[in-house]
Amino acid sequence: MTHPTPPGTRDILPDEMRELRALQSSLIAVFEGYGYGEVRTPTIEYDEVLSRGDERGAPAAYRFFDEGGDLLAMRSDMTVPIARLVAGRFAGEEPPFRFAYAGTAYRAIRPQRGQLREFMQAGLELIGPPGPGGTAEIVEVLSAALDAAGLGRAVIGLGDAALYNQVLDEFGIAGDERRRVVDRLAAHDLVGLEAEVAMLDLGVGERETLNRLPGLRGGAEVLQAARDLGGDAVERATARLAATFEALAERGVESRIRLDLGLLRDLGYYTGAIVEVYDPAVGHVLGGGGRYDELMGRFGRPLPAAGFALNLERLHIAQAEEERVAATEGEGK
Amino acid sequence: MRPPSGVVPPGGPLKLAVPRGALYEGTLDLLDEVGVDTAAARGGSRALTFSAGELVLVTMRPSDVPTYVEAGAADVGITGKDVLVEQGDRVLYELLDLGYGACRMVLAGRQGDDRLSEAQRRLGAMRIATKYPRIAARYFEDTGREAEVIEVKGSVELAPLVGLADGIVDLVDSGRTLAENELEVREEILPCTARLVANRVAHKLRAVEIDDLAARLRAATRP
Q1: Fewest C-beta atoms under 10 Å: which of A92, A164, A312, B126?
Q2: Superfamily of domain B103-191
């Protein structure tokens, strides 16, 4: 007779555990090498602390009362707990703060889809240095971490979290119309987007901007393509992206960057540059992050900040797939 | 040794998920029109994948297309809007309305029979048989009505004939199947056509090839 674990949780057995541990150690070694000390925070926090992090509705999916009647929640990522930690434990110290972590986080899942309720993340936070310099630093570390994981083919998408809000502000799109446009963008539904945009009271050029921006992705040439669309908001976003891209070029990591004006991250606290990690051997996103320049202020220590998290289990799958690809190519020669 | 950093373009032809069934011929015709040779995929072949120059065609049930594309087992795919709405929680890029395969998602009831409104009025809920439980449930929720949605896998027209349900939610093309089973359209829910979808990672990493394919399909479907 077997006793199941809840959906979206699992046991990890020695063969897998050994490889996950090795992967995690190699990532932490890279982070430490760049001056990011490893920290560990509790898996459960006060709900009030976690919900402070994401004002669009706390992403914490699992809440419960403790014996004293306080509302607790399982952390849904590590960024908010580390923001709390820096604001509280390092109140008297001067930035920059550099912290790395590896641990479990918890999110709601859709049934029957193989999603994990409890998953392992490894990442870092850089608190103090503003973009583009700070952004370039974390992307350089991310790139080194991907190399250390054996994912030489992995690609980092770089976009801007503020782009669409600023474009919609500039075009005067508000209320229900704005919500519908944002919903279509978030669903990656470019057909629905075009239909919504066609119903807006906008000029031809503005419609073109909204329809074409989500498809602009690639090398430095997309910045020019975006500028050609015109408008202040697009100009400002491309200037921010260009500055980050130049800072990355100075660090020699621009070759694995894909600029992406269609990039959206689903966490509410991102304010500027955002990144997402892909590997050609697997169809899912391996991790991501970005700038969250307003989050620290919500904990009483306003400081610019940026960070990223890699999903350890997905990274491990990508590693295995890349090994398989390499082995097949080896046979072919 | 540490592998070199930098982008290596992913190799091999793009994998396109092609829906078998009602959309199959239209899909192959459209691909021919944009210069993809689909001869191998026509005729009675039992094979499931076909090489077509720049593409590999992977044939499957339309309702499996989102599954393969979301997982990256196919880079791009073609399927009906009905399938995409029913599986709305799949993370995919919907790139293009291809226009063909036009049909309607409808609520249908028996001809000359007010069982639907009768059930609604006297019993508080309609019993609705469908292969699209999520579309049906969402539709009745959005229109403020109670419905007991019964999922069936086969011919949904059977359900009201033998009293399993008061009506059906189903995809209707010409309406002939409905008429032959003494059913009629009561409400239109959603117009549906074939759509081009893409995997989230492929859309980023194979942008040039996917944009090129989408542009050719767009040109061919918008004369």
Answers
A1: A92
A2: Periplasmic binding protein-like II (3.40.190.10)
